[in-house]
Amino acid sequence: MRYGLHLSIAGKQGIAGAAEEAGLLGLSAMQIFAKSPRSWKIRPLKPSEVEGFRARQENLGGLPTVIHASYLVNLAAEGELGEKSVFSLADDLVKAQVLGASYVVVHPGSGRPQRAKENALRALSLAGLEPHRRGPKLLFENTAGGGEKLGARIKELAELVVETPLGVCLDTCHAFAAGYDPLHALDELEEHLGLERLGVVHLNDSVGEKGSQIDHHANLLEGKIGPGLKEVLLEPRLREKIFILETPRSPQEDAHNLRVLRGWLRGE
After folding, report:
1. Catalytic residue among 174, 180, 197, 205
2. Which domain holds residue 19?
3. Which of 1, 133, 190, 193 is exposed most, by the fewest CB atoms within 10 A?
4. pTM of the model
């Protein structure tokens, strides 16, 4: 099993600095944004950034990397928003390929399910990726629900990807906020899709109550899911998956979350 944190790309070293931080924290995987998650602006990666990142990645044993798409992306949208979303996601997929990332994670968006699938496949095509060949895999992430957000129900998430080359990412906080116990969400995903299509697990505690539809992550053991997350981490069916913590970040919070996670892995 590989595990890591969502790391910042801010600072002089940018993306390369995130890989360096992963090494300092002793992580075996990492997740990053490839650009600002709250802007449509697309910035090319500098060759020095790519070289620095790939060198650190190699030194860390080929550190599996996940790229999270921009929060602005809504693949189910029509018109200009839909077009911007496709191009933004295609940019992340290209950057993922250049950086040797394993996965790109994106929220399906709000609107028509068929449009979300079509736009996801368009983004793959624009990025020049052949879905059945080696390269970064695109994953739809389950959501906390509310409004017209797609992917809150596990069956719906499965239906979004079942006849496509896409995979899924399971977020424990989102599942809980949508009304699931995380392991029950996993069971339903296995029933409707199969766990071979699950690439990444976001291991997050939840500030909100079960079924609250509140997408607000808490530190491990400090939210409403609590010790139940240990069962997810140690679930035998997930042994080969990548676990990413998207928990609040500070030196103290990182130390707490990694101490809890590593304690669970040691059987404490």
Report:
1. 174
2. 2-265
3. 133
4. 0.96
